[in-house]
Amino acid sequence: MNDTPQGFDTLAIHAGAAPDPATGARQIPIYQTTAYVFRDADHAAKLFNLQEIGYIYSRLTNPTVSALAARVCALEGGAGAIGCSSGHAAQIMALFPLMGPGKNIVASSRLYGGTITQFSQTIKRFGWSAKFVDTDDLGAVAKACDRNTRAIFCETIANPGGYVTDIPALARIADKKGIPLIVDNTTATPYLCRPIEMGATLVVHSATKYLTGNGTVTGGIVVDSGKFNWSASDKFPSLSQPEPAYHGLTFHPTLGGMAFTFHSIAIGLRDLGMTMNPQGAHYTLMGIETLGLRMQRHVENAVKVAQWLEQDPRVEFVTYAGLKSNPYNKRAKKIVPKGAGALFTFAMKGGYETCVKLIDNVKLFSHVANLGDTRSLIIHSASTTHRQLTEEQQVKAGAAPNVVRLSIGIEDVADIIADLDQAMTAALA
Ligand SMILES: *Cc1c(COP(=O)(O)O)cnc(C)c1O
User: Which of 64, 83, 110, 180 could anchor a disulfide with 278, C-beta 3.0 to 4.6 Å?
Assistant: First the structure.
């Protein structure tokens, strides 16, 4: 082991990867296999008992998926990680070891619209619930945490409003309450922000977005800091007490900092089956090799486009934390010092009608329900991704009917601006 910590771009290319022991293949092979041959009956028994670590069945672990999990874990500075079938699956997987019927989470009211729906509707079927609060109001966050609260959940840079979350402040509240802070780091990526260094316990990702980076994959990741003491209270019995779902194993006392990760594999992936596939993991691994380069260009372009929009008389406002005029600019310098991402909204004068015409007139931008692609993307959140929300929830989430969301790509910035310019002209004609 080399003791000098390696830099981000080095880890993005090398972490989790070694030449394939069987063939010497330099790139990580796509291990397209369901099962793995046991050496003998004793080996099989040891694997099932977690006495020896190895591959059993690809619903649990797969070498290509494990390489990706190890890479994202290294980039986030975590202790363990798992791959999941989507970002939404990762959110359920992050909550699963912590929750039970009657338990709740305190979540930011400014989350990705799909997450608000998942938390306000679907998790109720499990007997879980979410209380949504404005995470800028730290008093309200603390007050919302009750004896049944099992986590605080936020996004680093909230999609689509571009709000930057004060992660250290939320981590301090979580600490005081003896619960973990879960941060969805999808829109920032570990290149712009490492939430674990700011006190987060768990980090979740939609690998669908910037990690893969080119709109080819649906995937998710959960990273655990390994630092939370699950046995400090009786709040997390699945980790601190004998777990009946795994022949009475007590995960935290036995496995320490790897308790959450092993629980997620041995029970979560085993029984919920929200597993990432090796082909998807391969694409994401390819994407991550250039994550640093791409994020630099994404941010550079986003700043230029936001500045151009802000000075244009056809524009009412731009919500990009990278702009000096933005109320989150000061916080952005602390939380995401390398840049406030490449996702923001703006409102054109003329409201809803003009927004819709603008979207119908772009040529370089793609009108899609995705973000974090190399390509520039545009969408009217209120009528699409945030459609299931009430207008009040839309406004709170930063997706009011008069704004469009941009995900700025890594094309030549002059072409991105020229496309918006011609579409705005057409929208007002
Ligand atoms: C897209 C997204 C998700 C959901 O991820 P999927 O891979 O689409 O399931 C969660 N959080 C954020 C911030 C997202 O942008």
Answer: 64
Tokens 């966050």 — which residue?
141
Residue of minimum CA distance from atom 4 in ligand 1: 87
The b/e string for 315-351 (b: 16+ C-beta within 10 A; e otherwise) is bebbbbbbbeebebeebbeebbeebbbbbbbbbbebe
Whether domain 8-287 has CATH 3.40.640.10: yes
Q: Is 27 left (phi over 0), alpha (psi -120 to 50) or beta?
A: beta
pTM higher than 0.90? yes
pLDDT digits (tens, 9 = 90+) for 189-210: 999 999 999 999 999 999 999 9
CATH number for domain 291-428, candidates 3.30.420.40, 3.30.450.20, 3.40.525.10, 3.90.1150.10: 3.90.1150.10
291-428 has the same fold as 8-287: no
- What are the tens digits of pLDDT across the range 101-117? 999 999 999 898 899 99
Question: Atom 8, ligand 1: which residue's CA is nearest?
Answer: 87
Among 159, 164, 277, 405, residue to substitute to test ligand 1 (most atoms within 8 Å of Cβ): 159
Testing ligand 1's pocket by substitution, the residue of 84, 118, 208 carrying the most ligand atoms inside 8 A of its CB is 208
Measured from the Cα of 159, ligand 1's closest atom is 13
The DSSP H or E segment spanning 190 is helix 189-192
Taking the centre of ligand 1 as the mean of its atom positions, its distance from the CA of residue 88, in whole angstroms, is: 6
Lowest mean pLDDT among 250-259, 266-275, 384-393: 384-393
* Ligand 1 centroid – CA 424 distance (Å): 29
Amino acid (1-letter code) at residue 421: D
Q: Which ligand 1 atom minimizes the distance to the CA of 111? A: 13
Nearest CA to ligand 1 atom 5: 87
Q: Which helix (H) or strand (E) holds 129?
A: strand 129-133
pLDDT of res. 2: 54
Kindly state if the Cβ of 87 falls inside 6 Å of ligand 1: yes
Domain ranges for the chain, please list them. Answer: 8-287, 291-428
Give, in order, the Cα–Cα distances in Å from 349 to each of 49, 187, 301, 354: 63, 27, 23, 7
